[in-house]
Design a protein that fits this description.
This protein has 22 helices and 24 strands. By secondary structure, it is an alpha+beta fold.
């Protein structure tokens, strides 16, 4: 990074060159000798001329100063007095360097005309000499990275650097350039090298700037000298005059560019990397990309580097670079756990009313983390149905673990994240802890009514809900996990079609609203397998069958309702734990904001999903025949079905009103005869007003954790270390059907069935029974 003194600029003077005028009228200064002069805002014109006169062989009286206006390379402006000089300084006061031209006035003669700046070389007056000072854009900061080019052996043996004319061009690369659509990211490096007088903190910083500069301009270079005091570099193309020399300033560690020939004459521009690609350098270049997208493939890395920087890597090089980047990120993974205490504090400070707590094991290693934002709790208590879905999904992170989630359903049947936890594994103890943390948030003291949970019945969830909530909740068994358990527990040899039919009948039995329909479905299962029938009867149907279940789950039969969580986690689960939590927080924050804005445009009384469902029932109600029975009860007929509607108790024998929260077609026909609106008899949770309450509060951003954790913990602060479990090497096995997701349509991959013994998982050739018989015959 170039060092610019406060309120000063560097004036780089070149003397003895000429101007070349191009077809478009722009001028380029070529040749001459270069000198650097400090330029102060408070300096006067006379003082500036004196500084130059002491440097070059030119008197103050014979000196003419001219300069270009910013962005104008066609017209030269003359500096003849202090006001002109100050105006020039003000034009370029934001730049590190300023471009001016110094001319030597010719001796007066009889027919001498007033001299103008030379526009073309052939018209230049022989006794006019010029000097240039280069303006440059501010130089970007240069990070410390591993060196790329191993060619550190000096080729030339002389220790003298011969001063040479340094041609400065407004376009120092008049050669074939790459496609403008490519190498966009490398353009930030185009001005890392600006010319004579530029300073750096060290030679390592200069070498790094040089490498990036060569990538930006797509040329290769070689070291002519590469010592601890000086560096000389030339373009690798034979005959190309491009050259640069930099050395340390005496009595300092600063490095200054002493000479530079910035013009290239080589015409072949390659998009390949101008260095032997080292995985360390490329790894540092892509580290942030790997951090943001941990699942990025080496092929995609190579494509992006080619597109953004013009660097060509093969698959193996890209893979090794990604491995290096992940190794460097390992430290951030470990540091993230030590930052947990401060991170939890920031969550609760920036989001008052939220809860973020964690626990460790005896060895201070991470155990589990619970997070629940106030906006989620207020949204659930004010606008959501008393219905929660508990589920877990594995984390494919370096330290593995599980994400436990509690998700609600908003008035439009959208998933509303309420709380989540990161635990080391999914077991009864962690589920008990999660439900314990959850209860005071979702069921505060004095809450009326009961809450319904849709969740697995294994891994201690059933026992934990009974112990922690007792009679204050209903537990609806997740139908997906139930089907999975049925398939796993069957010991008989059943074909794929037989198992699929039994799962279909199980789902039909669960959805059946009446006892008769439930019994019919179970009899169908019995016709296939008595073992499966007995299993279904013993599986506590009062916890999963509509015909018996006492709670309200609004026709939601499985616990995998939090699809948002699963998709978010798949994108962020390889991030360090604090970044992963913050990524989930950001997703939740955006979800709440987006739905709040979208719902502000709704003009209906019900949410769009519920409005459509109700309209479908209204259409069907036109075909319902109605007979009054007694009081508020009516007999209604729809097709061949006869049902009883109790309008005062909001009940219909078809159970549709109770199961969905919306009036069924039978009830709508009766309400219409009374002149009542069906909208007034929908569950209040489906009204737009309740939806607005759900998304009324916001989740606030969390500042980055900037506090560094010392190796020794402060008093009262737990120094959390990563969990001992780490992901094993190799590719992670991914189930195509996640636990608890088995349904009739995506039940199981067809299994191999033996044509001899009818067993599953093998064929005749590998059948153990046949092999045993053949072995007996052979004996």
């Amino acid at each position: 990074m170039a060092i610019v003194p406060s309120k000063k600029m560097i004036a780089i003077c070149e003397y003895g060159g000429d101007f070349e005028t191009h077809d478009d009228g722009t001028m380029t200064y070529v040749g001459g000798e270069a000198y650097a002069v400090d330029l102060d805002e408070n300096m006067q014109l006379s003082g500036f001329k004196q500084e130059i006169a002491e440097t070059i062989d030119l008197t103050v009286d014979a000196m003419i100063i001219k300069y270009f206006l910013p962005g104008n390379k066609k017209n030269l402006i003359t500096v003849s007095k202090d006001k002109d000089f100050q105006r020039m300084v003000n034009y370029y006061k934001e730049a590190d360097q300023v471009e001016v031209f110094i001319m030597k006035e010719a001796p007066p003669g009889k027919n001498t005309k007033k001299k103008q700046p030379a526009r073309r070389p052939q018209k230049a007056t022989p006794n006019v000499e010029t000097a240039a000072i280069v303006q440059s854009a501010p130089v970007p900061a240069i990070t410390n990275v591993v060196a790329l080019n191993d060619q550190h052996v000096g080729v030339e043996t002389t220790n003298e650097i011969t001063p040479a004319a340094v041609p400065i061009s407004s376009n120092p690369f008049p050669m074939v350039v790459a496609d403008n659509d490519e190498r966009l990211a490398a353009r930030q490096w185009e001005n890392l090298i600006t010319g004579v007088g530029q300073r750096f903190h060290s030679l390592a910083e200069f070498r790094e700037a040089l490498r990036k500069y060569s990538i930006a301009h797509a040329f290769n270079f070689v070291y002519k000298k590469n010592e601890n005091q000086r560096v000389t570099v030339k373009c690798k193309a034979e005959g190309c005059p491009w050259r640069i020399h930099a050395s340390k300033l005496s009595t300092t560690q600063l490095v200054c560019i002493k000479t530079m020939r910035p013009v290239h004459t080589c015409q072949e521009v390659t998009s390949k990397a101008p260095f032997r690609a080292k995985r360390s350098w490329v790894g540092n270049l892509i580290k942030e990309k790997v951090k943001e997208s941990p699942k990025i493939k080496p092929k995609d890395i190579a494509i992006e580097l080619k597109r953004d920087y013009g660097i060509d890597l093969n698959y193996s090089q890209a893979r090794r670079a990604k491995e290096y980047a992940r190794e460097q990120l390992l430290g951030s993974y470990k540091d993230a756990y030590s930052e947990l205490p401060f991170f939890c504090e920031k969550i609760m400070d920036t989001n008052p009313g939220s809860l973020a707590s964690f626990s460790t094991k005896e060895d201070s290693s991470f155990h589990r983390l619970f997070v629940c934002f106030h906006a989620s709790i207020s949204g659930f208590l004010q606008g959501c149905r008393p219905l929660l879905f508990l589920d877990g999904t594995p984390l494919n992170s370096r330290y593995q673990g599980m994400l436990l989630t509690a998700t609600a359903a908003d008035g439009d049947d959208g998933a509303f994240p309420v709380a989540f936890a990161v635990v080391d594994e999914e077991n009864a103890d962690n589920w008990h802890w999660f439900i314990t943390q959850l209860k005071p948030m979702v069921y505060p003291t004095g809450s009326p009514g009961q809450i319904t949970f849709v969740a697995d019945f294994q891994k201690g969830i059933r026992e934990s809900l009974r112990e922690i909530f007792g009679g204050e909740c209903y537990h609806a068994y997740c139908l997906g996990y139930l089907a999975e358990k049925l398939n796993k527990d069957l010991t008989g040899h059943f074909s794929h079609d037989a198992r699929r039919l039994m799962v279909e009948d199980l789902y039909a039995a669960a959805h059946a609203p009446k006892l008769e329909a439930f019994e019919k479905c179970t009899e169908d299962i019995k016709a296939i397998s008595g073992e499966a029938y007995n299993w279904v009867i013993r599986s506590e149907p009062d916890h999963w069958a509509n015909a018996f279940f006492g709670g309200l789950r609004y026709n939601h039969m499985t616990s995998n309702f939090g699809n948002h969580f699963y998709s978010w986690v798949s994108e962020a689960n390889e991030l360090p734990i604090t970044q992963m939590i913050d990524e989930l927080r950001g997703k939740m924050m955006q979800l709440i904001y987006t739905r709040r804005v979208e719902s502000s445009q709704w003009m209906s009384r019900l949410t769009p999903t519920m409005e459509e469902k109700l309209k479908n029932e209204i259409i069907k109600a036109r075909s319902v025949q109605m007979l009054r029975s007694h009081g508020s009860k009516f007999e209604v007929r729809y097709g061949e079905m006869i049902d009883i509607v109790d309008i005062e108790n909001w009940d219909c024998s078809c159970k549709g009103w109770l199961l969905t929260g919306l009036p069924c077609c039978h009830a709508i026909a009766v309400l219409d005869s009374y002149g009542r609106s069906p909208y007034d008899h929908c569950s209040r949770y489906f009204h737009v007003e309740m939806y607005h309450l759900t998304y009324a509060d916001s989740i606030h951003p969390i500042p980055n954790v900037e506090r560094l954790v010392d190796s020794e913990a402060e008093d009262g602060v737990v120094l959390v270390t990563p969990p001992p479990t780490m992901r094993t090497p190799g590719r992670t096995k991914i189930r195509k059907i996640a636990p608890g997701r088995i349904g009739p349509s995506d039940f199981l991959k067809r299994q191999l069935q033996c044509g001899k013994c009818k067993g599953l998982g093998h064929n005749k050739r590998s059948c153990k029974e046949i092999n045993d018989q053949l072995a007996a015959i052979g004996q």
